[in-house]
Amino acid sequence: MIITTPRDWSRIEANLTDLGARRVFIMGCGQCATVAHTGGEPEVREAAARLEAAGWEVTGWTVGEVTCHLGGTKLESRKHGGEIGDADAVLVLACGAGVQTVADSVDKPVFPGLESLFLGNVIRNGIFEERCQMCGECVLDQTAGICPVTTCPKGLLNGPCGGMWDGMCEVLTDRECTHVRIRRRLSGQGRAGIRTVEPKDFSKTLKPGALNIRPPRGSR
Amino acid sequence: MSRLRDLLDAREFVVTGEVAPPRGTDLAAMRAAVEVLAPHCHALNVTDNQGASLHLSSLAASRAVLDMGIEPIFQQTCRDRNRLALQSDLLAAWSLGLENVLVVTGDDPRAGDHPNARGVFDLDSTQLAAITRGMNEGQDMMGQPLAGGTGFYIGAAMFPEAEPWDVQLARIEQKVEAGVRFFQTQAVFDMDKLSRAVDAVRPLGVKVIAGVLVLKSPRVIAFVNERLAGLMVPEHISARIAAADDPAEEAVRLAAEQVRDIRQIADGVHVMPLGLDHAIGRILGEE
Ligand code: SF4
Ligand code: SF4
Questions:
Q1: Per-residue pLDDT tens for A122-136?
Q2: Is residue A179 part of a domain?
Q3: What is the phi/psi pair of residue B265, to 5°?
Q4: Which of A133, A137, A196, A204 to mutate to test the interface with B (most CBs of B within 10 A)?
Q5: Phi-psi category of B143—alpha, beta or left, where left has phi over 0 and alpha has psi -120 to 50?
Q6: A141 and A110 in one domain?
Q7: Residue of A156, A167, A202 lying closest to B105 (CB–CB)
Q8: Which CATH topology does B3-283 take?
Q9: Interatomic CA distance for residues B157 and B125, integer angstroms
Q10: Cβ–ligand 1 contact at A157 (below 6 Å)
Q11: Are B58 and B33 in contact (CB under 8 A)?
Q12: Residue A190 domain-assigned?
């Protein structure tokens, strides 16, 4: 899921003040931001209370089911058309993808309420770790299911580097070196090899990513 | 032809030293260091933005060293350049007459004087070694022919004391498979571990030049332990330097003992005098 964290509140207030906005509509997200405890119902209510305490009027709020889904967010915005129409601005408690989807769906200035950090694994409730950077050319087949692109701070595909000491990482000194973990797991599975993992194909990660898996018209 | 390679192939015990390019354009201090070290060394490493801190490029500085009549070992880190720039610099290096290259990963930028820099790491040192070997065979990493290839003697770093050893060993084998022909080691304190490493690479037919760090004061030891990644000075050595009446003198004696041991074990020694350059002759047992 996408891991988000609350945005510096003073920046949100500054955005609204600069615009001269007095009335605000708030939209959260029922997916990642709910699990991350940043844009679910409790956090949306809290933001509303905070704005009201500081003198803003909250015309309404909602938690979209999947805020980055354009069709669903358009529908949700129409459902709240009156409240959004009354507002001078919309504050979105979702990841950057969600914020942009809302901005494409409503005819009002839209502001981000969160910072988007990474694609994260949920280790336990409230504990998230980045394990994949979506590089478009997965090497997990060669690295025992441990991603060096993401979890080695240098992103080295072959390692360890010279900074490794006693199995620990040079950069994140409280963590085991990714490449020590990879080697250990590979040899534990009897797969230890010395083949060099080839340089990455960065053309696979060119921004912006786009994918269309719809069957071509008339193919059904 | 790389003289370093010729000497190692002829089973001569080689001595390499190290100089750092300046943090600026004034090459005088580096040249002075070359003048002190060159009479005692077969080749000198020229570091590449060492410690992830800004210095004049190793490319230009290596050429300056060559112009002084001693063979440089041009260091290239993967931290600061992408694959186009690395290959381009390798071509430049060869055209400038640099024949030895040491490929290294590079410290993380957060350890240096530009902590906000983006670490490139487009390639890692093993991949860079393999690409360099390809250039020696006349092609770039895409397999396209070059109008004039290279003929580098390819070296890499080795860490005989960094555990776990099985991981290090696999790494060494991987580097050799990628085309590495000689290793320069991190500073060695435990000669049994150096022997273990040399014995392991013997069947692979590659050379090992063992590192000696001259630890002239407890302050330098503290710096090494805190700031140099992948290296820890053992307690008995720190204690010996700390207890000495003249720590610098003791450091020279210690380094000389290490060199004497290394002569029995490895193919050469790489001396990092850390400011005691003038003592190189005594460290090597020549005086
Ligand atoms: S290699 Fe790592 S970053 Fe790339 S897709 Fe696989 S897990 Fe994700
Ligand atoms: S110690 Fe290991 S995980 Fe850390 S930067 Fe080096 S190779 Fe990557």
A1: 999 889 999 999 999
A2: yes
A3: -115, -50
A4: A196
A5: left
A6: no
A7: A156
A8: TIM Barrel (3.20.20)
A9: 9
A10: no
A11: no
A12: yes
